[in-house]
Amino acid sequence: MSQIATLFQLNDSLPECSDPADPVQAEMALRYAMLFWLAKAEQHFNKNFPQPELDLSLRGRCAGQAYLQTWKVRFNLGLLKENYEAFMQEVVPHELAHLIAFREFGGKIRPHGKEWRWVMEQVLGVPARTTHQFDVTQTAKQNYLYHCACPERTHALTIRRHNKIVRGTNYLCKSCNSILIFDSERNAK
Ligand SMILES: [Zn+2]
Ligand SMILES: [Zn+2]
Questions:
Q1: Domain boundaries, the chain
Q2: Which of the residues 70, 89, 136, 144 could staple to 157 if both were Cys, CB 3.0 to 4.6 A apart?
Q3: Cα 15 to Cα 8: distance, rounded to the nearest angstrom
Q4: Does position 136 have pLDDT exceeding 50, yes or no?
């Protein structure tokens, strides 16, 4: 059994937090929750995984974002304040499951496809929901929605850029270097 799993035999539950608005407490809770869910994965696969790097600088409407190549997860402390339980029970395992699915099945899988769902449900024991809370960005005039290979990532483009793509220009995601693929047009209000 791994070190982390042994550690959590002593205290096999998610952390409580008296004040999730306190960034120090929030960070400790996130680190602890990450180890808690990581221990479940290690038990399932009977091997150790590296600890993901945590970055707490995410802003906006996206709760978390997994960086597969660099084994890093960004969390949104502004949203954690209001959604502490959801972060512990759902957001942390959701993002960790992206890392594990990538490591075990490679980079060609769909972000919320069957491999990710299997990790969520069979490995971590969490319902595999993809809720609105994980969606990104509402910026005025950027009404053309594209995706790349990053999980959770929606790129909202202006009509100017969209028209350039229609005419044959390719735009690459700066994080994953994949070509942006058109999803849908958002109704402008
Ligand atoms: Zn990307
Ligand atoms: Zn996701």
A1: 3-123, 141-185
A2: 144
A3: 11
A4: no
